[in-house]
């Protein structure tokens, strides 16, 4: 009986340990930042010029990449003018 209790107790502790580890909010935050960083690097690689048109194209690509990865992004298109 004691062995059975020890086995069930161990399984309970193991399941609690994995449940708290999978609910770590830092892992989700790191994932979001990783996607945002990847989108920004890809946009800079595709649109390396820093003209107003290049800046707008880079920002539009970055926003589209974020949306494609189900991450929050500003609505609409980036403009080429600074109002």
Number of strands: 0
How much is the average pLDDT? Answer: 83
Order of helical and strand elements = HHH
Main β-sheet description: none
Shape summary: rod-shaped
| Helix proportion | over 70%
Distance between the termini: 76 Å
Class derived from helix and strand content = mainly alpha
Q: Unreliable stretches, pLDDT < 50, 5 or more residues?
A: none
The tally of helices reads: 3
Tell me the radius of gyration: 23 Å
Strand content: under 5%
Short key terms for the protein model shown above:
83 residues, mainly alpha, 3 helices, 72% helix
Describe the structure.
The chain has 83 residues and is mostly helical. It has a domain at 31-75. It has 3 helices and no strands. Helix 2 (25-46) runs antiparallel to helix 3. The chain is rod-shaped. The model has no long low-confidence stretch (mean pLDDT 83).
